[in-house]
What we know:
Elements: E1 3-6, E2 15-18, H1 19-30, E3 35-37, E4 46-48, H2 49-61, H3 65-69, H4 73-86, H5 89-95
Antiparallel strand pairs: 1-2, 3-4
Helix pairs in contact: 2-4, 2-5
Amino acid sequence: MDLTYNRHGKGGKEEFMPQNQISVKAWLARNRGEMIVCPYQPGQLTLSKNACSRRHVMGKQEDLSELQKGNDPLSYSYVRGLSLCRECQIGKKLSVKPKNARA
């Protein structure tokens, strides 16, 4: 594992952290304006505006009859999560493309 020295650890302690964790923090710092905290998903899910838009569209397309069956716990969790996105006004607003946007 590639480790990089980090002087800004918790409580001012010096520590080592994996390189990919630094990359994630750097990406989040650069793209902070593209991220939102979903008020409907549990655990204060942080996702990009693009991901929110896609979840809204997928929620509209998903067959919610599978939710009633409950045979597959993983499928249930997936469909249940998307069911929250189906009528979300935030996702709806983000999924609308401007009229002058290129296809």
